[in-house]
Amino acid sequence: MPGLRRALIALFVVGVLFAGVDVALVLTSSHEDQKAVAAILGPLIGLGFIGTGVFAWWRRPLNRFGLLMTAVGFAWFLAALADSDTAVVATIGAYLAPLYLVLVVQLLLSFPTGRLETPAARAIVVAAYVDAFVLSLPVFLLGGDVNIGDGAPDNAFAVAHASGVADAFDVMTSIVGFGLAAATAVVLLRKRRTATPPQRRAQAPMLWTGLVVIVALGLVFGGDAIDVPDEAINVVGLVGFVAFAILPFAFLAGLVRTRYSRAGAVGGLIERLNAPDTQVSLRDALADALGDPTLQLVYWRESAGHHVNREGHRVDLPVPGSGRAFAEVERDGKRVGAIVYDAALRDDPSLVRAAAAAAALQLENERLEAELRARVEELQTSRARLVEVSMGERRRLERDLHDGAQQRLVALSLQLGLARRKLTDDPELGGRLLDAARGELDRALAELRELARGIHPAILTDRGLGAALEALAQRAPLPVDLDEMPDDRLPSAVEAAAYFVVAESLTNVAKYSGAQHASVRVDRLDGFAVVEVSDDGVGGADPAAGTGLRGLADRLAALDGRLEVHSPPGGGTVIRANIPCATCA
Amino acid sequence: MTTVLIVDDHPTFRATARMLLEAEGYDVVGEAPDGTSGIAAAWELHPDLVLLDVNLPDLDGFSVAQRITANQGAPAVVLTSSRDSSDFGPLVAGSGARGFISKGELSGAAIAELL
């Protein structure tokens, strides 16, 4: 990201300019009593924050921690405006002076992600801004002592002089400041308790240094409020000041430590995974190494086009904002699976990537197992459905025979019996009865023919798929084009499956689609017979809704085949079946 | 003349049976396509005989027979089906019907034998 890099360099240059202004203000100030110290330490501290912040920003552009650190540096320079001899500038400096402290509180509470993750942390930061800039306002407006120093210009914001009331507000801001510092310390300690061991190791330098800053700040506020002697406050203040100054370096130390500890974690992971007769599971080893007990492994199923868990059940990868993140694992350029982890770990994606690379081989093995389980489960389900489908077909057959041909034959038998009796006394009626019987017989034959074709059409057995589909197209109630047909015979199971895909699809087209036209093609493609039936109807066919399409899918699954339905509303329907076929090159 | 109500869901059978029974001297006073309307028609028309199909779309023919024959002075019921009586085991005997005639063997004489 060269644009970001240039912008960050420019930001640092602006920081240097601020440092220059800071030095000039200190050196020309008539009321700064420690000019040498302030002129040397001031810029160093500010640039320390800005430099470290810019570095963190560049390394993790999405993490707001770098931005906050940089902001502390600039706020530090703003506080130096108080050294000005111009009353307005000095008063603005005094008013803005607490900003860097509030930002430090925000920085510590949002460490290491840069986001305030708990309501308590957010409440503390909001209260700190209110304390620093709202509660302190009466102190300025009522002409209170704004702590600029001896010989400094007067408070330029004073619109009235009520120093008693102003002092009361001053004490109140100190008391609130004390309370907020104490709350911050509690939140920081709690955060440390809930951190995982590797996180704790990595966060220790920043956290402890920050705690010293916060405790010292609290003591200074507390001392201010109850008028503790200045000497004592100054000692505590100095300790806090030193801790504040080294905060950026504590952060850098944490980074270095993290890198070492994380390299160690991945090294340990590799060792554990390669140990002979290792008992620990891959997931547990990864969870330990990454310090995330909620870590999950998911495996890519190429044939199904989605991920599955260890049991072979379908799993979707987490979406952004769900609190979970994932790292894809590849082996020899092929997708193997993914590590799904707590999004809090995202601040170091390189660690997850390193762990993923270390685990790729094992993950591939587990993927094969999960794939197998998923296939077994699919086979069990489709086998059960196939039995159900075949039972349903038998029931339908029985009903069709009973309601159709059998009824006609019953009527035929009755008509023949009656005709036989009438032939002598009423030959005319006898003749009419025989005609009616003939008609009944024709209809019974037609129904039986249709039924037999539904079971297995003879033309398919005798003349193959092309001829059977031609017959099917001719019988269809709408024009059907046969675009592409195999010239020679396919295995009989494949021909039968292909025939029923077309038969069922054309039945659906005629019943539901309102199409004007349909077309059918059967191609041979890479070991598959690909059957496609498309129409120009209303679309919106749902394979899950009816038994017809699902029955087809189950029949195909028994052959390791697959049914795809593309049917956008208003966009026609394409049914495509891929049937494995040994002779289809 | 014996009055008859035919209860069967197949119109072809109803028409043929009516023709056959009328030709053999029966008076077909009504037809019904399912069990519920069959029971209602039996109450309304008071036929001497109900020719009742076993496989009706709503109710089972045996329970229809039970309900028609439950009262004193109810019509006689003869069950019929395109299936064979052996398919139904003891159900015919327990239904209150006079007997069973397979549809293919339906004739005035076969009915007269059961009445």
Please characterize this protein's 3D structure:
The complex is a heterodimer of chains A (585) and B (115). With 585 residues, chain A is an alpha+beta fold. Chain A has 3 domains: 2-258; 278-376, no CATH class; 463-580, Histidine kinase-like ATPase, C-terminal domain (Heat Shock Protein 90). Chain A is 65% helix and 11% strand. Chain A is built from 18 helices and 10 strands. In chain A, the strands form 2 sheets. Chain A has a 5-stranded antiparallel sheet with strand order 3-2-1-5-4, covered by helices on one side. In chain A, helix 13 (349-425) runs antiparallel to helix 14 and helix 16 runs parallel beside helix 17. The two termini of chain A are 48 Å apart. The model of chain A has no long low-confidence stretch (mean pLDDT 86). Chain B has 115 residues and is of the alpha/beta class. Chain B has one domain (3-114): Response regulator (Rossmann fold). Helices cover 35% and strands 23% of the residues of chain B. Chain B has helices spanning 11-23, 35-45, 61-69, 108-114, and strands at 3-7, 27-32, 49-53, 76-81, 99-102. A 5-stranded parallel sheet of chain B has the order 2-1-3-4-5, sandwiched between helices. The longest helix of chain B is centred in the N-terminal third of the chain and has 13 residues, at 11-23. The radius of gyration of chain B is 12 Å and the shape is globular. The mean pLDDT of chain B is 91. At the A-B interface, helix 13 of A face helix 1 of B.
Give the quaternary arrangement of the chains.
heterodimer
What fold name stands as the CATH topology of chain B?
Answer: Rossmann fold
Report the count of strand segments of chain A: 10
Give helix and strand order of chain B, one letter per element, not per position.
EHEHEHEEH
Across the major sheet of chain A, the strand order is 3-2-1-5-4
Q: Can you tell me the CATH class of chain B?
A: Alpha Beta
Report the C-alpha radius of gyration of chain A, rounded: 41 Å
Structurally, how many domains make up the residues of chain A? 3
Number of helices in the DSSP assignment of chain B: 4
Strand line-up across the major sheet of chain B = 2-1-3-4-5
User: Based on DSSP secondary structure assignment, what is the total number of beta strands of chain B?
Assistant: 5
Mean pLDDT of chain A: 86
